[in-house]
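$ run holo --ligand "guanosine-5'-diphosphate" --emit tokens
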Amino acid sequence: MLQEHIRNIAIIAHVDHGKTTLVDQMLKATHAFRENQQVQERVLDSNDQERERGITILAKNISIEYKDVKINVIDTPGHADFGGEVERVLKMADGAVLLVDAAEGPMPQTRFVLSHAIAANLRIMVCINKIDREGANPEKALNDCLDLMMDLGADDDQLEFAMEHVVYASAVNGYARLDPDDGNTDMYPLLDMIVDALPAPDVDVDGPLAMQCVTVDHSDYVGRIGIGRIYSGTIHAGDKILVVKNDGSRAMSQVKQLFTFDYLGRKECTQAEAGDIAAVVGLDSTDIGDVYTDPENPVELDPIEIDPPTLSII
Ligand code: GDP
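-- output --
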């Protein structure tokens, strides 16, 4: 069953190609900010501030409501030192927006994250940004993106999808267009394409609970927080669940609090359904890869390999 009212997407971009600006504009376009509220903080840079408040849950991820669809925007680290983490967080996504500067074209971090998105078999649409910039060459940037996808082993379906789903944007000026010269002055063509063309999660809402932890956060107040995608069923605050670790060991645990993404922060909720991304408080020794499942009817998910910490030698 498809969860038509959810889109989980990643934005793939090299540093400075405009991811933060684009996300700010998507939030503005969906009225995430009250009329009189200035967008002082650039949202994806809000991590430190969130940390100071004592609890950081998905601080760099955001969620937008548009046309009755909840769009979870999953942040991906761009640096090659975080290869394992990129692979893991992309497990939460079904689609991606490949965001590229119209003058620079794809750059090393574009390549790095894109290779993981292709390997994860995500549907990838293209957003050529900064079309207002001097030296912008949107057609060349697009062709370079498609060549790069081919280089990185995208299959025919992925390539065809990318070719047919392109928007041209000037994030700084707050517009996205289906044609660089069409004169549109708002962000809706981008939001429409995300909602209409990127896939909804293909999950079983009525099945037994299965959620997999891909990121662990920590708060001095509540301890470890397991964050991941729900693959089937519904998780509730208060549920007694079975936690299955990577090594196969099992233990019962209780969900004390549950959160989902909500615009720039998170919202405490009583339940979260398959297809959504949740943060679970109360599972004291939770780790990356843990599967949270129904004790009566446990579901197995593919284990997540965790790389040993790497030291970068410069
Ligand atoms: P990020 O590193 O990908 O998050 O990029 P930012 O959103 O921080 O943008 C990097 C720089 O590019 C900033 O100075 C933005 O104002 C600028 N920028 C973002 N979008 C556009 C655009 O559409 N046109 C132009 N000319 N500049 C942009």
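-- notes --
The radius of gyration is 19 Å.
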